[in-house]
Amino acid sequence: VRPPFIGVPAGAVLWSLRVGVAAIRHRVWTVVMLAMLALPLAIAWGPDVSLRVLPPTYSDARVAAAPTSVTASVPVSAAVTRMEPASAGTVELTPAPSWNWRAWLVAIYFAGAAVLLARLAIGTVRVRLLAREATVVNGELTSAHIATPFTFGLLRPKVLLPQGWEHWSAARLAVVLDHERAHVARRDPLVQWLALLNRALFWFHPLAWWLERHLGALAEEACDAAVLARGHGPADYSEHLLDLARPASRRPLPNLAGMPRLGSGVSTPTTKIPLG
């Protein structure tokens, strides 16, 4: 229930100000994602706020005093004598326990979170192995197991190029490196990994799924704008994107759970895979 109170104001501000710059929108939604991710910590370790409850008031003072006088008039011995022992041979039947729906909800939540966390962990390990098997060709990390370049790494992002990139034209190599280095400068792999973690923890909430997809699309859009700002022509850039997408469609990446695939967005030239 609480996450919409984080996302709705941010969306309203972006809409009212007509913010069209992808980099700014990406920062705003990153803050929303981090606030959503920190929400369980704030609830668990936040300060407790106690509210003082006032006692009930009575319109007639005599009505309020009546129960006290009646109770005082009853002698203690009379109250004790009225208590009769339980009849011999009677069996008290305890009601059958009702269905604990809260326990089932908790179990379902942890099951869903465990599946997505396992997918994120498997994807991270696979990328580690992929990067470990990479070789250095002319100063660039190169892998024979990928068809398109991508950026990986949480704390120290790096660019991994597919085998045969040294045969590219100088223009294509410049476009690819400018795009991927924009991801490195923006720390997009870290943001995307945190978005996947947030989706795993809040898998029941549509906002978590939307944030993960939207942040990935905005990161690609922001890097496209950075490439064009460096002087590359839009027509040439689009042609390079299409040429990079063709081998990716013929040889997709291994099953790295939770990772966006090439072609998921119109302007997506590469696949971004976070690595711890």
What does this structure look like?
- The chain is mostly helical.
- The protein has a 4-stranded mixed beta sheet with strand order 1-2-4-3, with helices on both faces.
- The protein has helices spanning 4-17, 22-45, 61-73, 76-82, 101-132, 170-186, 188-201, 206-229, 234-250, and strands at residues 135-137, 140-143, 150-152, 158-162.
- The chain starts with a helix and ends in a 26-residue tail after the last helix.
- Strand 1 (135-137) and strand 2 form a beta hairpin.
- It is built from 9 helices and 4 strands; from the N terminus they run H-H-H-H-H-E-E-E-E-H-H-H-H.
Offer a few descriptive terms.
276 residues; mainly alpha; 4-stranded mixed sheet; 9 helices; 4 strands; 59% helix; 5% strand; elongated
Total number of beta strands: 4
Order of helices and strands: HHHHHEEEEHHHH
Helix content: 55-70%
Strand order of the largest sheet: 1-2-4-3
Overall 3D form = elongated
The percent range for strand residues is 5-15%
Question: Termini separation (Å)?
Answer: 31 Å
Low-pLDDT stretches? 76-81, 255-276
Q: What is the residue-mean pLDDT, rounded to a whole number?
A: 78
Q: Specify the structural class.
A: mainly alpha
| Cα gyration radius (Å) | 31 Å
Which sheet architecture does the biggest sheet show?
4 strands, mixed
Count the helices. How many? Answer: 9
How do the helices and strands line up, and which of them pair or pack?
Blueprint: H1 4-17, H2 22-45, H3 61-73, H4 76-82, H5 101-132, E1 135-137, E2 140-143, E3 150-152, E4 158-162, H6 170-186, H7 188-201, H8 206-229, H9 234-250
Parallel strand pairs: 2-4
Antiparallel strand pairs: 1-2, 3-4
Helix pairs in contact: 1-2, 2-7, 2-8, 5-7, 6-8, 7-8
